[in-house]
Amino acid sequence: xxxxxxxxxxxxLENAYLKKNWDAANYIYWSIISIVLGLxxxxxxxxxxxxxxxxxxxxxxxxxxxLGFALLKKKSKTPHLLVILLSALFSAYCLLIIQQVDGVLxxxxxxxxxxxxxxxxxxxxxxxxxxxxxxLTICLIYALxxxxxxxxxxxxxxxxxxxxxxxxxxxxxxxxxxRKRNYKMNLEKELKREDLLKTQANQIRNLNLxxxxxxxxxxxxxxxxxxxxxxxxxKINNIIGLSQLLQLSTDKLDEEExxxxxxxxxVSIDLLRYxxxxxxxxxxxxxxxxxxxxxxxxxxxxxxxxxxxxKLDEYGLDLKLNKEEAQYFLLTDLLIFNNVxxxxxxxxxxxxxxxxxxxxxxxxxxxxxxxxxLAPSARIPASELNRIFKPIxxxxxxxxxxxxxxxxxxxxxxxxxxxxxxxxxxTELEGGVIFKLEFKQVQNPQILN
Length: 449
What we know:
The protein has helices at 10-46, 51-75, 80-100, 104-123, 128-149, 154-172, 175-247, 255-273, 297-307, 309-315, 334-351, 382-388, 407-418, 445-448, and strands spanning 293-296, 318-322, 329-332, 357-365, 368-375, 422-427, 433-442. The chain is α+β, with helices and mostly antiparallel strands. The longest helix is centred in the middle third of the chain and has 73 residues, at 175-247.
């Protein structure tokens, strides 16, 4: 995949270059200050006659250097003037000492000066004009000192290290300009590389998000098909069950009614036989749409209770809604939430003993509302309950002629999690089953309006 990167803004390039420039200047500044501090100790031992005079000179360099650094760093946009000023002061000090010593000490100070100026030109990033100013400044200082102390020292000093110093001074004065051009070119390449990497990283992140969305959408499509097949099979089984009940009253039915009942059974069995292939068409829209909205918890539970009243009466069970007067609102999909509650209650009804009760309680937990379904008389082994809640992708249908067992709870769990809720189940040691749902609590929409 090819991607054309955007051009690097000029200010970004200049800001990066200026930062590097100041970093180099700070390194030069602290290096010269450190060398000057080191000369305090060195000259105490090798320049006993000049130690007091050099002490004042070094102190003046430090004072001017620190003061100049504090002022120029605030006033100047570039560090060039600061570097030239500090290097000129240090060169003047070393050349002054050279005029007052002889022999090996001349060579020592030329070596120190050569290393400082050579290192400075290697680190600095500036145009050639600044290098020329530095060369002319140092040469002028050297010429004035020679004129003051006498030109007869010039040739001996050149032989003791002056040639090497002047050669390094001239040759390295061209390095900063070349380093500046090379650094800007490399910096521009680096910024373009970083920009390209960021662009590609954003594209990869977007592709991963789209891939994740497609994966989730595909998973929901598969779940939707299983959910629809499950609900369809349950309804068809209900029709078969009703037709079988009607057949028990054969003495009250005439021949035509019996034929209709038999036809109903035959059609229902055919529907079961083809239920697994009913949603095989590729052009069928099976996308699952969730519409989150404030839902009154107890109002929804009362509605579900009315819907399953006949089943409760058939099993002789009492559904108790504890703290029913409380007003709790959940952020969920009303239709899916009702289906989840009905699925849970259907299983608890089947597992519970006759003439017992199922208790439902809503209570606030932090920023959520927890709904607890307690069936104290429910009898189901923990291993069987765990088997029911195996991953939905691995759920197997046994036979088209057998009612699905346990998938309703798996559907309830999956739908709860897709609505942003929390689903948990547990079995008590002395019997009984508890299901717990949690959804985000919201304010009463009537109060907001």
